[in-house]
Design goal:
There is one protein chain. By secondary structure, the chain is of the alpha/beta class. Helices cover 49% and strands 8% of the residues. Strand 9, helix 17 and strand 10 form a beta-alpha-beta unit. It starts with 13 loop residues before the first helix and ends in a 6-residue tail after the last helix.
Length: 470
């Protein structure tokens, strides 16, 4: 029986151990998509206790606590932080096989030097130890980033954001990590949402443009795109319920937009046509600037409407949608390719059923100019598990080219989540090592070691245009 989470955690064979310890483990981190607040980096936030560092805003953990019957007061409510942590510690022993069980113990070991197993009985020891350690400079936000080997961070930012924290970080010589904004224009295309007209009015006020037509909207968005570009933006991100591709002529799109500004009801078909027009506009502009376009889709959001009304979105009430999108994905990419305006694109579906589809569709649009121009993004959200990562990479290996994969991202709101890169790298090296141990790939450690380094770090550095440091 192996010890719990020893140095060879998740590494079954000798090849996997060599690949991880000698090649992947020391690679820098480029966390190209996350939801952390750049103000907290600039201000070098310090956490008072482990509840602030672990449980604030983390709906992954909230879902687990609800599943074992914890009252909401101890999750998102007004209970004292110590009591909230106790309830979380009492939840973890039930969570065998869940990645959060692994992630929290990795974080406890890597950042706090503590090998206790978290449960109700050890909660007080963990609380006291972490509270003391969090006073160290090494566990300030910048200390965590530095000790984790983070070279670059991609935040997620609305077009209306003034990006003042990004500018401050860029101008601060003591800040060593690159912190780049990511353009997330969902509110500008969600014409079927009740706050659409208000958002367009705010965009018009910010840009000084009266937005009455689709051309006015594009001009205002282009102004913000150019501003983001000046501020070091390298990518966009789009949170889509499902991938849409329903082209319509300019007159039809203009009519739909007028209805949206007036607050008139919008049909699903009309919304799809408007969104298609805007997404094609975005794709062409991103290709011009050399940006990367990320498409996240397949979430069935806000399913518990009672709790949604009480707590708002992104509080743990979303699920996987299985809506079929293959023709739309292919049609959208093709429309940009035909015009010679297809940017580098990363595709993420929340449905694991889409994995093979995505790797085969993206294979239709690869070509000269970029290795792995179209990417099947790292296993996302509910798929961000040991099995989910393995299945995503095996699909990519079986029907694509695993060696071009740009690897892991945290997609997190927590600064302690960088250990997820370690988790991914161990899974990657074990997958490669298993192929060797079974005689399915030559035991060429030079080739395999370079692949482990590339997927862990170098591929994403080159893809996003960062300096390759290792």
């Amino acid at each position: 029986m192996k010890p719990f989470m020893d140095k060879d955690f998740l590494l079954r064979g000798d090849t996997a151990k060599v690949l991880y310890h000698d090649y992947a483990s020391q690679m820098p981190i480029i966390d190209y998509h996350c939801h952390i607040n750049p103000a907290e980096i600039m201000e070098n936030r310090r956490f008072d206790n482990i509840t602030q560092a672990w449980l604030g805003g983390d709906h992954y953990k909230w879902r687990l606590m609800r599943a074992v019957g914890v009252e909401e007061r101890y999750i998102t409510g007004d209970a004292p932080d110590r009591e909230k942590f106790q309830k979380f510690a009492e939840t973890l022993p039930f969570c065998i096989g869940n990645p959060i069980h692994h992630w929290t113990h990795l974080e406890l070991r890597r950042y706090f030097g503590c090998d206790l197993v978290i449960n109700g009985d050890t909660a007080q020891q963990v609380w006291e130890l972490t509270e003391k350690k969090l006073k160290d400079d090494a566990l300030s936000v910048r200390g965590i980033i530095a000790s984790s080997g983070v070279q670059a961070i991609g935040t997620t930012d609305d077009p209306l954001d003034d990006l003042r924290w990004h500018k401050a970080l860029r101008d601060d010589p003591s800040n060593k990590a690159v912190v780049s904004p990511t353009f997330r224009p969902d509110k500008a295309i969600n014409i079927d949402k009740p706050d659409f007209a208000d958002y367009i009015a705010k965009l018009g006020a910010l840009t000084g443009k009266g937005i009455k037509t689709v051309d006015d909207l594009k001009a205002a968005l282009l102004q913000r795109i150019n501003f983001f570009n000046e501020m070091g933006c390298r990518a966009s991100d789009h949170g889509l319920d499902y991938v849409i591709f329903r082209p319509a002529d300019e007159r039809t799109v203009a009519s739909i937009f007028r209805k949206g500004l007036e607050g008139a009801p919008i049909t699903e078909a009309e919304a799809e046509s408007f969104k298609t027009a805007l997404m094609l506009f975005f794709g062409r502009e991103f290709a011009r600037l050399g940006w990367i376009m990320q498409l996240h889709y397949g979430a069935l959001r806000g399913n518990n409407t009672a709790m949604l009304g009480r707590l708002g979105p992104d509080t743990g009430y979303d699920a996987i949608s299985t809506r079929e999108c293959s023709q739309a994905v292919a049609g959208f990419l093709n429309a940009l390719e035909v015009d010679g305006k297809l940017p580098k694109t990363i595709l993420y579906s929340l449905s694991p059923n889409d994995s093979a589809m995505l790797t085969t569709v993206m294979g239709c649009f690869q070509g000269a100019g970029a290795m792995g121009k179209i990417q099947h993004g790292s296993a996302w959200w509910f798929n961000d598990t040991k099995i989910g990562m393995e299945q995503q990479m095996l699909n990519l290996a079986n029907t694509g080219v695993l060696g071009t994969f740009i690897g892991m991202l945290t997609d997190s709101r927590s600064f302690l989540s960088y250990t997820r890169h370690e988790y991914f790298r161990r899974i990657l090296c074990n997958l490669l090592g298993d192929m060797v141990e079974r005689g399915e790939h030559p035991a060429d450690m030079k080739v395999l070691g370079e692949m482990a380094k590339n997927i862990s770090y170098r591929n994403v550095a080159r893809y996003f245009g960062y300096e390759v440091l290792a």
